[in-house]
Amino acid sequence: TRGPGSNGFALADMLLGLPRRIQAELDIRDQTFLNSHVMPWIQDDWKVTPKLTLNLGLRYEWQGRPVSNRDAMANLYQTGPATAVVITPNGPPPGFGPPFVKRPVDQVNRSLLMNDVNNFAPRVGFAYHATPNSVVRGAYGVFYQRDSAVTWNGLASNAPFIRTGDVTLTV
């Protein structure tokens, strides 16, 4: 953004009406993603003593990576120490050849990233009947968060499905 009248700060230049270079998407991106997940659990209470009850459980959280409804996403895939290709779920659209290729089906699923399959989440809790009128309770558990949608929106903004344009303005 540095140019005549610019102080070198992009936000300040924009607020002053001094943009020199603009980059914009020319296509409408497909942000329709399908998610799947499976989260089975087991849990039970054990009365250890008349005053102490333990609650123990284990949950498995498989959160599948989102896939594009129309497979309109792309990602960089490293094929060697200094080589890479751009992979797409079902191959590039017509008219696009290398470096755009179909994903290696045996290594990457339709989301273009591998699923996280080791999310075991133990849970433990207790209830202690301290006095006739009070109970002390506590619990601990491990929880997992789904990936941010920003990652998937970024994959949907990659070539060859989105074209971008640069405009340089002169005064």
Account of the protein in words:
- With 171 residues, the chain is mostly beta strands.
- Helix content is 8%, strand content 40%.
- The chain has helices at 10-15, 149-155; strands at residues 21-25, 33-34, 37-38, 41-47, 52-60, 62-63, 67-68, 75-80, 83-88, 100-102, 120-131, 134-141, 164-168.
- Strands 4-5-11-12 form a four-stranded antiparallel beta sheet, with no helix packed on it.
- It is elongated.
Quick rundown:
Helix content is 8%, strand content 40%.
- What percent of the residues sit in helical stretches (DSSP H or I)? under 10%
Distance between the termini: 13 Å
Low-confidence stretches: none
- DSSP helical segment count: 2
Number of strands: 13
- Structural category is mainly beta
Order of SSEs? HEEEEEEEEEEEEHE
Q: How can the largest sheet be summarized?
A: 4 strands, antiparallel
- Rg (CA only): 26 Å
Based on the model shown, name its key terms.
171 residues, mainly beta, four-stranded antiparallel beta sheet, 2 helices, 8% helix, 40% strand
